[in-house]
Each structure stands twice: as structure tokens, then as C-alpha cells.
Amino acid sequence: MHSSPPTHLIVCREPLAAPDYRTAIRLLASECCRCVPQLYRPETLTAWALEREEEISTYLGRGIALPHARVEALQQPLLCVGRSPAGIPWPEEPARLIFFLCVPEHQPELYLHFVSRLLRWSTGAPTSLLQGPAEALHAALAEVLLPASTKSTAAR
Asked: Which residues of the chain have pLDDT under 70?
């Protein structure tokens, strides 16, 4: 399987201020659309991700959730990361790292690629990344997810 790296890796500077997973997904979808304007409207992206969330939870364990949407307008994946040191209520348990993943409509298998990489990464990731600067989390994720030529997308 050939996997395309994300062309955009966005790490939100401020912790997510969300009372629940629906709000967290909406905030991250809005950030995706702000950074990549060709992504439809935030409401549309939010609806797609929530539809998938209703089918089956995207909580992966270890305080990590990976809501996602398939997006026709994308050629490469987009990953937007939100942090919540206190945790955002998810149906299973609080999520402290929320990875909002948008994959191209024609490459749905990329979701499994990201699940695998993120779970491997999370087993050794220091908990200080939850409370440290967004740039540190961005750098750690870029090492795992981005080839050297695309590590320019910064924390926002």
C-alpha cells in the first residue's frame, strides 16, 4: 500500500476549550477549513465527521481520538491536532489528544495508516507534549508522519 503523507499538519496552539466531543470536532473542523480554504464549509466537514462518529466511535484508547472525514476536494491528507490536558468527554473516556484527519475521498485506506502510526507513536510519546508548547508536539508528530521535504507546516 502506498501512503501519502499529509501536506498539512496543524497543531492548535491553545488547548481545546470544548465541553464535549461534538464541540471539539467542530472546533478542529473549523481550523482545518481556515487553514485549507478549499475544504468546503466547517459545518459540512463537521457533519461528515460526526456522521462517522455516530457509526462507530473514533476513540482509540490511551486518551486519543481520531475523528475523520473523507473529502473529495483533497489530494493529500490533512491532520489537525487539538490538545486537552484535562480531557474532553468522549463516549468511552476523556480524550486528551484529538487528531482530526481529512483524507482524500479516493484514498480511504489512509485512515488505517494514520491509526497505526499514531498508536505506535503514542506508546512512547512523553506526556509533557500535552502541556508543552504546540511547536514541540508539532515537531514530534512531524518526525513520525511527514517526510523531510514537507515539514514546513507549523503550529497555529
From this structure: 1-7, 147-156
Beta strands in the chain (DSSP E): 8-11, 59-61, 64-65, 68-71, 78-88, 95-104
Report pLDDT for 73.
Answer: 80
Contacts of 72 (CB under 8 A, 6+ apart): 104, 105
The C-alpha atoms of residue 3 and residue 130 are separated, in whole angstroms, by 27
Cα separation, 100 vs 91, in Å, equals 17
CB atoms within 10 A of CB 125: 18
pTM of this prediction?
0.85
Handedness of CA 141, 143, 147, 149 (dihedral sign): positive
Give the pLDDT confidence of 134-148 residue by residue, as tens digits: 898 898 888 888 755
- The C-alpha torsion from 9 through 101 and 81 to 16, rounded to 10°, is 140
Q: Which of 144, 148, 110 is nearest to 124 (CA)?
A: 144
Are the CB atoms for 100 and 32 separated by under 8 Å? yes
**pLDDT score for 2:** 41
